[in-house]
Specification:
By secondary structure, the chain is mainly beta. Helix content is about 15%, strand content about 35%. The protein starts with 7 loop residues before the first strand and ends with a helix.
Length: about 190
Amino acid sequence: MCRKTCVVTLIVMSDRIIEASPFHRSDRTLAGFVLSGRWPDTTREWAQFLALAVRIAAAPGMLESTAVFRAIEDVPEDPQPGAVGLVTNEGRVVGKGAPQPGQFVNPQPPALLVLHPPLETSPSTPESTGAASGCVLLPGIPHLGLDHRAAWVEAEADGTVTRLVSAIGVDPLSDPDLAVLATLCAA
């Protein structure tokens, strides 16, 4: 796992590379990711990013509790070359400091994620140990024909992806993670 600065190449399509660099808080917990090169364009590319994020969340101590992450088109001070944006930890799903319903309405993020650490994940298979999980919602505008899209990933601490599902035209009420994420970006 990346303990210092590391860059992971997620997607290579000809010369269109997406790179993700995790960054940490002073207590070494996951604060988010810097995306470089370009933003993910498709549900598949966001699913690949989610797989990376869940694998990192599965590492012991990286994520204390279930947290919401938001994609923002902003870069840190003194960004690495080619930085296009951030996926930042916005806080626990519930409790003190948790994001509030409608908090991400304006501007609506291109993606919202929820990551569950191993202690808060029920693995999909009995042989999965220390698995973390997550979901990404790519908000659409259904009344204009732009469907909501989503992906779900489960991965073990050794990096093994044990489940990966993506879908287009999802109903946010069909899944608890989607319902929470949709509530945060609904007016």
